[in-house]
Design a protein that fits this description.
- This protein is an alpha/beta fold and 275 residues long.
- The chain has nine helices and eight strands.
- It has helices spanning 49-52, 56-66, 98-113, 130-141, 173-180, 186-189, 193-203, 220-233, 248-268, and strands at 6-10, 15-22, 36-40, 73-77, 123-128, 148-152, 208-214, 237-242.
- Strands 1-2-4-3-5-6-7-8 form an eight-stranded mixed beta sheet, sandwiched between helices.
- A hairpin with a 4-residue loop joins strand 1 and strand 2.
- Helix 2 runs parallel beside helix 9, helix 4 (130-141) packs parallel to helix 7 and helix 7 (193-203) runs parallel beside helix 8 (220-233).
- The longest helix has 21 residues, at 248-268.
- The two termini are 34 Å apart.
């Protein structure tokens, strides 16, 4: 049985939202502080999806007990709420401040209510599909908050030079315009992952990036496009592809891969975790 979700108030969205949280074995018996891993759900899903359909709790506990994942807190939040997907960003018309909710409300709440290590070297983020886009977007727009980001089957090619590669069966380009405005305007450009990657390379610090995709996924070509963009920028990254498509079978099987990447990062920065 899963623990009950936690409810908190978001000032950015002016309403109450819920998240699921996994506390590492022994959390209640110690005063230790822990790194935090955020896991974002995809479009049409919710905060319960990773715990229930993705088996995130059992995977994390098994990996921590075996030593394959450093003891960490996992947070699985809502995207802020619309069933059609918020993409974890502030909408250009002001109708939804979903990026602000994450950065200004959720992260401070987690750091104030749980024994976290509240610094970028101990904070990582990952997600699937829309949440894969959201994890890279939030990390690249807030490199002072996240040291690493991972995407599984991410919706990564949604801007003018790659929009034709976003081949979700129900995808309509006008949906993106509704969220970020005209795709050739500055607002949209500052939510383009390739643009943001080039920006953080110039200005630093740059989050470490991992992404994977199934070769039968309708988003496979957009992931290859993003891989080419990072290669052209000489942005360091880890990319893997596997057999599989856009399914929970794929994500639950390969959650371990993205967590291993995060463990590699957190293990290398472990000397910075000390209070």
């Amino acid at each position: 049985m899963l623990p009950a979700p936690v409810t908190f108030h978001s000032s950015a969205l002016n309403r109450r939202l819920t998240f699921y949280i996994f506390l590492p074995p022994g959390y209640d018996q110690s005063d230790k502080r822990y790194p935090v891993i955020y896991l974002l759900h995809g479009r049409y899903d919710s905060e319960i999806s990773w715990p229930y359909r993705g088996h995130a709790y059992s995977t994390a506990e098994r990996m921590m007990r075996s030593g394959d994942l450093t003891e960490s807190i996992l947070v699985m939040p809502s995207d802020g709420g619309y069933s059609t997907g918020t993409y974890y960003l502030d909408w250009h018309d002001g109708s939804g401040r979903f990026g602000q909710y994450f950065v200004d409300d959720l992260i401070p709440y987690i750091d104030s209510q749980y024994r976290t290590l509240p610094r970028r070297e101990a904070r990582v983020i990952g997600g699937l599909s829309m949440g894969g886009f959201g994890s890279l977007l939030l990390a690249l727009r807030n490199p002072h908050l996240f040291g690493a980001a991972g995407s599984m089957s991410g919706a990564l090619g949604m801007f003018p030079e790659s929009a034709n590669l976003h081949l979700a069966p129900d995808w309509k380009p006008e949906e993106l315009v509704r969220i970020v405005g005209p795709l050739d305007d500055d607002y949209a450009r500052h939510h383009n992952l390739a643009f943001l990657a080039s920006k953080v390379l110039r200005e630093g610090p740059h989050p470490e990036i991992y992404f994977d995709c199934g070769t039968e996924d309708f988003l496979y070509k957009s992931n290859l496009w993003f891989k080419e963009q990072l290669e052209s920028l000489n942005y360091p990254f880890t990319y893997q592809e596997f057999n599989g498509s856009h399914t929970w079978e794929y994500w639950s099987e390969h959650l371990e891969d993205v967590l291993k990447f995060m463990n590699s990062y957190l293990s290398r920065t472990s000397s910075l975790h000390l209070e």
